[in-house]
Amino acid sequence: MPSGLAVAPNGEIFVSDGYGGHRVHKFSASGKLLKSWGKQGSGPGEFALLHNVWVGSRSRVFICDRENDRIQIFDDQGGFLEEWTDLWMPGDLWIRDEVVYVVEQGGSSGVSLWTLDGEMITRWRGSEGAGKGTLLGGHGICVDSDGSIYVTEIGQGQRVSKFVRV
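-> structure tokens emitted (166 positions)
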């Protein structure tokens, strides 16, 4: 029951098996299964619901462990490196220009921006922050080459919201 897919700089494919599998699967560029890791739980390398995956330029694998309110980071062989826990149900992430953009789904949906070292740059939830807009059910996120943030929304939202970089 895959919930996300990412392609590493070397062409390898990582799939988050979030809705039941509680694992990450790594495939070669040609589709051969190379390895899998993870299990259900709340410890390092364990997942409650892997909701999405991203592979950064340094081949670190970022996993949105939504129901454990954290992002877990692994090397490309599945070795646990660290976790970021100041999050509320992270559902998706996007990395551009050394910034990690995260859509947070719980309670009052929002967006947070992080350095690659796990330091929060900024965050807004719901209708917080003048001019930043309201998210009704943030689910997916991407960022264009101009720095504009796009958030897909489900539930009450049923829309795509664009936040323009100023």
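The mean pLDDT is 91.
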